[in-house]
Amino acid sequence: MALRSDWLPALAAFESAARHQNFAHAAEELHLTASAVSHHVRKLEDRLGVALFQRHARGVSLTAEGRQLADAASDALTDLDGVLGELKAGRDDDRRVRITTLHSLTYTWLVPRLPTFSAAHPDIHLTVDTEIALARFDDGGPDLGIRHGPGHWPGLTAHRLMDDTLFPVAAPDMPGLEKVATPADVLALPLIADLSRQGWHDWFRQAGVHGAKFDERLVFSDATDALNAASFGLGVALARGCVAAPYLDGGRLVRLPGPAVATRWSYYVVYPAHRRLRSAARTFLDWMLAQVE
C-alpha cells in the first residue's frame, strides 16, 4: 500500500494519541479538538481495516496492531526530526562567524563595540576564540582572525584594522605619582611589562631617556593583565592606546608624561587567501573595518 500525503495528518494524530494514550492530551499537543483527533484515528482505522485502539470508559489503549504502527510511526518521526535538526543546524551555521583574536583586544576593543553589531545583525552569531596560539585556518576552523604583526602572512589575505601607540599609564592614586613630571621620573616607579616585542627600552629611548636602567617588577604574558595590575597600583604599565582606552575613559588609569610612540606592528584582520568569505563573515569584516574609519 502506497503512503499518500493525505494520510499524514491522520498518522500524526495517531502517533500523538498512541504516545499519550489519551485523545485529549494529543489534541492539546496538536492544537486540535479531541473529536478531531478521534476522527483522524477512525479514518486511519477504516483505511487499514484494523482497530488501533481499544476504547473503554477509562480511556483508550493500543491494540497489538496499534502498538506495531505506533512503534513504526515513532521511529519514522524520530528519524525525520534528526534530519530536520541537521538541516536547520547547517542553515544556522551559515549565519555563525568564528573569529580568532587576541584576548587583550577582545576585552578592551571588540566586546564594548559588539552591542552595535548585534543590534544591526541579530541573525549573525559569533564564536570568539582568544587562544594565544595562532589558529589554523583549516576547514571547519575560524572564518576570520585578528593578528598583531607586520601585515603579511603566507596564504592569508590581510586587511589593516588599525595602528597603535605606546605610552605609560598608572593608577591615579599610585604612591609617588605626584613626583612624576618628566619621562625620566617614570624610572623611580615600579615598572610592569608584558611580552610585546616593543617594551620599556624602546619607549625610554624614544622619550630621550638614554642609558636608562630599570627594573620590571612584574611581567605578564597578556597586555590586559598588565593594565589590570597597574590599575591596582602595582606599578606603571606601558600601554597600547586601543587596549588602554576603556581604562583611561573609566578613570582607572591615567597617562603619564612622555611621548606616544608608534608601534612597529599594526592590527590586521586576516583570512585564507584561497577561501571566499561567507556572507556573514564578510558582514562582520566590513563592520570591524568601519569601526576604525
Automatic annotation (TrEMBL):
Ranges that cross the membrane: none
Domain HTH lysR-type: 8-63
Gene3D superfamilies according to UniProt: Periplasmic binding protein-like II, Winged helix-like DNA-binding domain superfamily/Winged helix DNA-binding domain
Organism name: Novilysobacter selenitireducens
Domain of life according to the entry: Bacteria
Database matches in SUPFAM superfamilies: Periplasmic binding protein-like II, Winged helix' DNA-binding domain
Protein family according to the UniProt entry: Belongs to the LysR transcriptional regulatory family.
Record-given protein name: LysR family transcriptional regulator
CDD domains to which the protein is assigned, alphabetical: PBP2_GcdR_TrpI_HvrB_AmpR_like (cd08432)
Keyword Amino-acid biosynthesis recorded: no
Keywords, sorted A to Z: DNA-binding, Transcription, Transcription regulation
